[in-house]
Design a protein that fits this description.
alpha/beta, 2 domains, 11 helices, 13% strand, globular
């Protein structure tokens, strides 16, 4: 047996077993090689190449502008940095809502050109034809219900979803429908914790929460938010584990000061 024991890769099947055994699933976003390497190396279960790249990488106000080509570029970069985690890639806005043929073609492009393991799309009954087509082509699909940021202009606000009974009932039905259609997991975003608990218990597939309480089968955060790279976004559900913004600012200021004062480079730092 070789000294290098084979890295045990996380698969959709692993996540299913984690739900069954009660082990929580950890998931973070990443958009580039260097951070993917750090996050995977730290032992994360799932990396999401999120359309949140539209916000945190490109500076757009919403997730809507990001294109399929752009998300593919980010996913390719992430895949080169990982050894063991499962990588999920968001299907961007406009590539699955109108036409299940376009949805399938887009999902196939992501799988072929990136080497990622699965895709994620937002919505329930409205997008079920697209989910069916993609799943039947052998591509694993993660669902996404509750606050679906690609529909921001429909909602008009990023407040908590499914507080009213009608929307809560639709979410319950959509979750069952996504499971029946073959999704391997569902993200539940910004919904009441009690509803998330009920839905999680009613499904055999794992749920991943963001602002949906502690009873989901896993949790996801945007890397830039939890590391404090981006400091403008401070919702209740976010725990900031680091303040990179502050530390990086200080480091850059120190560098500027050292250059100006001729302290950098010193004699040991030249040839």
């Amino acid at each position: 047996m070789s000294v290098h024991s084979e890295v045990k890769k996380v698969t959709t099947n692993t996540l299913q077993k984690m739900k069954s055994s009660g082990e929580k699933i950890s998931m973070l976003t990443a958009y580039d090689f260097s951070f993917a390497k750090i996050i995977d190396g730290a032992g994360i279960d799932v990396i999401l190449v999120g359309d949140s790249a539209s916000n945190v990488m490109a500076g757009h106000e919403t997730t809507l502008p990001i294109t399929l080509d752009q998300i593919i570029y980010h996913a390719q970069s992430v895949i080169r940095g990982i050894d063991r985690c499962l990588v999920v890639v968001d299907l961007p806005f406009g590539y699955y809502q109108s036409n299940s043929e376009i949805a399938l073609a887009s999902a196939i492009r992501i799988m072929k050109e990136t080497g990622a393991h699965s895709i994620k799309l937002e919505g329930g009954s409205e997008v079920i034809e697209s989910v069916k087509k993609i799943v039947s082509a052998g591509i694993p699909v993660m669902g996404h219900l509750g606050l679906t940021p690609q529909s921001i202009y429909k909602f008009g606000t990023y407040t908590v979803r499914a507080k009213e009974e009608a929307e809560a009932n639709k979410l319950r039905e959509d979750a069952k429908l996504l499971q029946e259609t073959g999704c391997f997991a569902i993200v539940l975003e910004k919904i009441p914790a009690l509803l998330a608990k009920e839905v999680s218990q009613s499904l055999s597939i794992p749920t991943i929460g963001i602002g949906a309480g502690g009873e989901c089968d896993g949790q996801v955060l945007v890397m830039h938010d939890m590391l404090g790279i981006n400091t403008e976004f401070k919702p209740r559900f976010l725990r900031q584990y680091l303040n990179i913004h502050e530390q990086a600012t200080k480091a850059v200021q120190q560098y500027i000061s050292d250059v100006k004062s001729k302290n950098f480079p010193n004699e040991n730092e030249q040839y």
